[in-house]
Amino acid sequence: MGLFDFATDIFSDIAGNDILDLGSQLVAGFSSAGFGTGQNVSYPVYGPAPQPPAPQSFPVAAPAVQMAALGMTRWAVRFPSLWQAIQKFRAGRINMTPEKLYSALRKFGPQVLTTMIGAAAVADLIAYKATVKRRRMNPANARALRRSMRRLKSFSSLSHRVSMQLGRAGGSRRRRGPCRTCRKNPCSC
Q1: What pLDDT is attached to residue 12?
Q2: Does pTM top 0.85 for this prediction?
């Protein structure tokens, strides 16, 4: 039974010998081209799917400890492209910080900085500047100064109490050496 044998049955009932000859020529053409049913077809044999490598076990540590072990700062996890750009500068012995890059962004514009560090790093830099606020000291903050003086005073009183307690614990220290009266050590008078 061939691939198109059903076609000969259909065409023989409808039109007669002309269409039957045309159908058999089509079937013969397909058979000679290698599409017949008598051909052995070989399919590729696939082996078992490769297994991914087993995950390595690392000791569980806090994220801050892991970042410190890698030499990363806290913001480097949130902005990896910016971190990599800064590390490239540091590999070339240029001390670069996000603040210096932002200063260059304001000075030269994003196009120049994009050619230097890439578009992803510039986007990370803008997001960094929007979320990470720079802490600076306000020396004219009287409330903070009063708070610091109060803390210093309480620390001073606490350290004084500790030194007094240590002075009492030792008791009165005796002088080493012979007695001045009887000239014996230990004293016999």
Answers
A1: 56
A2: no
